[in-house]
Hints:
Blueprint: E1 5-7, E2 10-13, E3 18-23, E4 33-39, E5 46-51, E6 58-60, E7 68-73, E8 78-83, E9 92-99, E10 108-109, E11 113-118
Parallel strand pairs: 2-11
Antiparallel strand pairs: 1-3, 3-8, 4-5, 4-9, 5-6, 7-8, 9-10, 9-11
Amino acid sequence: QVQLVESGGGLVQAGGSLRLSCATSEGSISFYDMGWFRQAPGKEREFVAAISRGGSRERYVDSVKGRFTISRDNAKNTMFLQMNSLKAEDTANYYCAAKSPVVVEYHLWGQGTQVTVSS
C-alpha cells in the first residue's frame, strides 16, 4: 500500500485559486484510480473529482465543473487538484483517495488538508 499525504490547503479569498497536491514518500500511485473528496463542518464527505490510473479519464461533481481540474504525474507519484474561481461553499477539508480499478470503493485515504474560502 501507498501512504497518501495532502498539501496545499490554506485561506483564500473568493475568486482566488489554490492547487492541492497528493504525494507519496514511498510506493507508487500508478496502479490506482485516484480521487479527491471533501467534507465541510457538519456535513458528510462528498466526491469532488476522480482520475483514472493512466490519467486518460476524468470526472467531476457538477458544482466544480469548469473551475477545478484534476491531474496526475505517475512518474513523481503525485496527484493534483487545481482549484480556480473558489467560492465560499468550497470551504472544506479535502482528502486524497485511491483504489484499485477493479473495486468500487476507495480504500486508501490521506489525512486531509483544509481549504477555507472567505467572502
